Amino acid sequence: MRSVFFVKIFILSPFKTSNEESSFTGLFMQKKVVIITGASSGIGKALAEKYAAEGWNLVLAARREERLLELKTTLNETDVLTVKTDVTSEPDCKNLIEQAVEKFGQIDVLINNAGISMRALFDQTDLEVVRKVMDVNFWGTVYCTKYAMPWLLKSTGSLVGVISVGGYIGLPGRSGYSASKFAVRGFLETVRVENLKTGLHVLVVAPGFTSSEIRKAALNGNGQQQGETPRNENNMMSAEECAAHIFKAVRKRKRELVLTFAEGKLTVFLSKFFPRFIDKMSYKIFAKEPDSPFK
Ligand SMILES: NC(=O)c1ccc[n+]([C@@H]2O[C@H](COP(=O)([O-])OP(=O)(O)OC[C@H]3O[C@@H](n4cnc5c(N)ncnc54)[C@H](OP(=O)(O)O)[C@@H]3O)[C@@H](O)[C@H]2O)c1
Description:
Low-confidence stretches: 1-23
Shape: globular
CATH class: Alpha Beta
Number of helices: 11
CATH superfamily: NAD(P)-binding Rossmann-like Domain
CATH topology: Rossmann fold
CATH architecture: 3-Layer(aba) Sandwich
Structural class: alpha/beta
Radius of gyration: 20 Å
Helix content: 40-55%
Number of strands: 7
Strand content: 5-15%
Mean pLDDT: 92
Bound molecules: NADP nicotinamide-adenine-dinucleotide phosphate
């Protein structure tokens, strides 16, 4: 009797507290399930590849379904569900979660990664741009989280939000973007505190500059996509490296991950003690971008 008890503890206890998947768990447990929004490009796509390589079941969401289907062909297809989803639509987000549960029966990790950016001074920005950015970045996170919550609570899984350094400091020319990322941080930090005793893990990730399509897709003041990046994408962290950091932070059940040293960790740290200095630095850095809306 006693030995059965110890065997149970030995086999089951690691799975209650960690999302780590191993060949050992594969023998005894169902594969774990991650939902990734914004999986058609950049960090989300790299996350899909990382979780696939680690042997997880994947639920991939984005509007460009053809890209998701193309990605699926490069992965172990039976482990991947693609769901065409516009995260600004509450019914789409509900459908995403329902389809995930119907296919795999559980949700262990939800990564709210889908996002868009903008670039224009606030007084030259249509309000519709701010609304759109809030709809994708903030409401998209809220909708998906709302419908996934019962399943994440059941699995004592991980709820992840991909924000930005712009969720800690106001980035000039990105009023709607910074506001949306501050909002996501406030939302997830509250959910974390509310769940201190339920075992739900909440991780807030702030990537630094990461090579992706985010700047090409960013909206100008009139709501048109910029179409090109104002920065050298080759000098940035790769989406794959960013995804590997996120995977590790989820596995270790960290509460916060700020990536890159100078533009990330140091900036967030200094902003708490020297906010005026950081204001001046970020103004200076963003003013140097080609076609910057301010000089
Ligand atoms: N790259 C960086 O330097 C950086 C830095 C800090 C934070 N971040 C954050 O990282 C996250 C991922 O961005 P990324 O850099 O990988 O950019 P990306 O390459 O442009 O990817 C953005 C993803 O979001 C999806 N998306 C956009 N609007 C959507 C909507 N309405 N519904 C569903 N999906 C939508 C896009 O898919 P579809 O267009 O197919 O829908 C795409 O898959 C974002 O939250 C971004 O704010 C990025």
